[in-house]
Design goal:
single chain, 532 residues, 20 helices, 0% strand, mainly alpha
């Protein structure tokens, strides 16, 4: 049992590292892409991508988890023939789903483009269509290998996807830019389709290398096949609730895609101004706002098995400690990132996107300051979702995020109808969405575990350290920017802020001795924080 638990934790760590690399490569793609194609090209890309993400959820969210669960259960019983049957059924099931979603996107491209209010995105939708089929088949193999505790296949295929997207997508976008920004967006999204094919090839080769041994084990099993219908029903019973929850995030992006342009035009803004405002929010700002969540997710992944193990052994105190640690980590990471993005919004955007005009930079900076507040709540949502899933209640975060989504739509419709608010209404509505979900998840966690809130320890310490960090970063930038080297001033200000916050973590003892036992490298931090 201990070996299986260790294998699981190692697999989760491997996927966490891969996830970090994937996000970094993704950011490396988005920044030069936005600089190359400009706000209009980025607008077409980001208007189409949420619809792809929504259709992708059907095949890439719930079913791989269900496949992994079904395979792992059969392997635990040494039923390798049953595990192979799950792969066979899921490949057929996901193949059909992939064909349907690909055809729907390709032949429905004009309809989707009309919904976005940007007809030029029709090329982007068609470029993305093949990717849906490739991902569907790939997810069958990923789920199977994960059920076998072979996480490297998923990790390698994820990295291959992102590298393909970076190299092929960026190259095609730049090559096709002279034909128009809509063709540049199409080129980038052709890169997405090719990259998904690369990911499929990598994971399939990983499977093929292990197939002979898996087939030998399957032949030794005496268990009878359960049949396509029974296996498919079992998979869908697990997959459907997870898929519903995972669909909320792309739905939020689809609402932005469908409403922002229309509402800005209705307020009297020209179409090109509306496109620019949309791309500044979705491409330039959202890319940066989502980066801190990578750290929260990686840390939350290690907390889920810890909570599950404590719950299984009925260690209520251990559950309380670990659950509270999830909340503290969310705030220790989220609050300083939010403050840093708020304080250095304009310098960071100027450094990363030097081609923005003065007016575009001003609007993007204002949007980032608003959206940065949401980083705190997004961090809470991600960490608390992991915690609550570890408690065995995955439907709770889904319900809370759905209510947040409804609040977002209502808030957005109201605020964007006010001309003085305009595009800021979209940014504010996203903050409202995550604020509700994050707070609701936290309240549920506290009630379920009977964990004390400990306001000073959990909230005040990270806020105090973050405020000190923000002040130092702001002053450092102001002082260094006078030299005329804005990029150097920005990097130095970020470095100064990180140093101050690291010192604050130690001086304020933001983590207890017991909590540090759960953190990688916690032993060293304990010796520094709590010197005898």
């Amino acid at each position: 049992m201990e070996k299986r638990q260790k294998s699981f934790v190692q697999g989760a760590a491997l996927l966490g590292v891969a996830g970090l690399l994937v996000k970094i490569i993704g950011a490396v793609f988005r920044i030069p892409f936005a600089n190359a194609v400009g706000p209009e090209g980025a607008c077409y890309y980001d208007a189409a991508y949420p619809y792809y993400s929504f259709l992708l959820v059907i095949s890439s969210s719930g079913l791989p988890t269900a496949i992994s669960k079904q395979v792992s259960e059969r392997v635990a019983l040494d039923d390798y023939r049953g595990a192979k049957e799950v792969l066979s059924v899921s490949t057929t099931l996901l193949g059909v789903i992939g064909i349907i979603t690909s055809l729907a996107m390709f032949f429905g491209a004009n309809v989707f483009a009309a919904i976005t209010s940007y007809p030029e995105t029709v090329y982007s939708f068609r470029a993305l269509a093949p990717a849906l089929f490739f991902v569907s088949i790939m997810c069958a193999y990923r789920g199977y290998l994960q059920g076998m505790q072979q996480m490297a296949g998923t990790a390698l295929s994820q990295i291959a996807e992102q590298l393909g997207k970076l190299i092929i997508g960026l190259t095609l976008a730049i090559k096709l830019l002279p034909k128009g920004p809509e063709y540049a967006a199409m080129g980038a999204l052709i890169g997405v389709s090719v990259s998904e094919l690369m990911g499929l090839i990598v994971v399939y080769l990983f499977y093929r290398k292990r197939k002979p041994e898996l087939d030998r084990r399957a032949k030794r099993c005496a268990a009878e096949p359960k049949g396509f219908s029974k296996v498919a029903k079992a998979l869908l019973a697990i997959a459907v609730p997870i898929t519903i929850g995972a669909s909320i995030s792309p739905l939020t992006a689809m609402v932005d895609s469908a409403l922002i342009g229309r509402m800005l035009t209705k307020l009297g803004y020209a179409e090109d101004v509306a496109k620019t405002a949309y791309s500044l929010l979705r491409t330039y700002v959202t890319t940066l706002i989502n980066m801190p969540g990578v750290l929260t997710m990686a840390l939350a992944m290690s907390l889920v098995p810890a909570i599950s193990a404590k719950k299984a052994t009925k260690d209520k105190n251990g559950v309380r400690i670990t659950a509270r640690l999830g909340l503290k980590l969310a705030l220790i990471i989220g609050v300083p990132c939010a403050v840093g993005l708020f304080v250095l919004a304009e310098p960071i955007l100027r450094m990363l996107y030097p081609k923005l005009t003065a007016n575009e930079l001003m609007l993007a900076a204002d949007l980032m300051r608003t959206a940065s507040i949401g980083v705190i709540f997004l961090s809470m949502v991600q960490a608390m979702t992991g915690v609550v899933q570890g408690l065995g209640k995955p439907q709770i975060p889904v319900f809370n995020l759905f209510i947040g989504f409804v609040l977002k739509v209502i808030t957005m419709l109201i605020l964007m109808s006010i001309k003085s608010v305009n595009i800021q209404g979209a940014a504010i509505s996203t903050v409202v969405c995550y604020a509700y979900a994050g707070i609701a998840d936290t309240i549920y966690m506290l009630r379920r575990t009977n964990a004390p809130l400990m306001l000073y320890d959990t909230f005040i310490k990270p806020i105090t350290g973050s405020v000190a960090m923000g002040i130092v970063a702001h002053l450092a930038y102001k002082a260094l920017a006078k030299s005329g080297h804005a990029t150097i001033a920005t990097i130095a200000a970020v470095a100064a802020g990180v140093a101050v916050y690291a010192i604050a973590v130690i001086l304020l003892k933001m983590l207890s001795k017991e909590e540090l036992n759960y953190i990688p490298g916690g032993g060293k931090l304990k010796r520094i924080m709590y010197r005898a």
